[in-house]
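To whoever is on call:

I kicked off a structure prediction for a single chain this morning and the downstream step that reads the tokens threw a length-mismatch warning. I double-checked the sequence; it's 381 residues and nothing unusual in it as far as I can see. Pasting both halves so you can look.
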Amino acid sequence: MKSPRSGKRKKSIPFTDLARATGLVSRAYLARVKKFLERGLFVLSPEVEEFESALSKYVGSPHVVGVSNGADAIYLALTALGVGAGDEIITQGNAYNASVTAILRTGARARFADIEERTLTVRPEAVEQLITSKTKAILPVHLYGAVGDMQAIMDIARRHNLAVVEDAAQAHGATYRGRHAGTWGDVGAFSFYPTKNLGAFGDAGAVVTNRADIAEKIRSIRNLGQSEKNVHDHLGFNMRLDPIQAIALSLKLKILSREIALRRKAAELYLKHFEKAGLASLIPHALPESAHSYHLFVIVLPRGSSRDGFQNALRAEGIETAVHYPEVVYNQPFWKNLRLPFDVCPVAEDIAKRIVSLPFYPTLPEGDAKRVALAVATFLK
């Protein structure tokens, strides 16, 4: 393998473009913040309720609770479902650290099901094989904007009387069989970290659910366990959504459908140029009947490739890349230090060594997509 040839210096291709996303709403945001400051109500204000209502309408779920971040959203969902010490939660081998540590915070054990090599989503058969008498819930993770096979997961959950919590932190706007990610299970958890398709100007998150009892319990736990002022029904925490972030999210939610449409067009550019270069096999497949929302655009390098060499070669061409994520959670130092048991996921481990995220944002120019594809092809030649 060799690096792309270097000619005269070309303009760099950034990994993402957060400045554009900020600029789309900055003027309206500052105006809304001014009114917010003048009113002087700073915690769980109407801005939070406005966003919760708007997100409820967008995803088609009757109950939305704004919370502090995506990891807390998963923790709150599990806690509201009664997960605790001695329980087991089945997630997937390529789950992100925050998804898994949310399980550990409840006192439960995380079990790891392996993934499908072509879709990078959890393999339902692997989930069912891990179910024991201690299993309390299944936690599929919709990575990169791709929804897993939720029909199969829900069928398994019903057969075994298990709850389902969807980690939809990277799947805003993604659908499967016409239903939004996060609305299939008992609870869906979202992150609004600034880089997400729907990103705040800091940390923020939300849970969505069709169950009024779960929504009511999460509303209480996120607010120090209060059901009303000075009445604390639950052991609770300060995990509230900040109104400053709710303002940004309400404004960005209004343009989310348009932005995701642009993301899909940008992904089509990559698909076209990768096919022309004979590299279509590097791109993971979306499941049939699903609509990818392309939080990230990832490829899986051939076995035997040097990922460091690949990234260095593209960097030399002015092309930024990233890795999401370079190691499965159970191989992270903290897991080994805690001496926690784990289920080996050979496919997830293999993919973690070969996955790369390419430059991607809604306004990615076709020329840049072509240039990236050619750089990839040159490296792999």
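Update from on-call: the warning came from a stale cache, not from the record. Cleared it. Sanity check on the structure: The mean pLDDT is 96.
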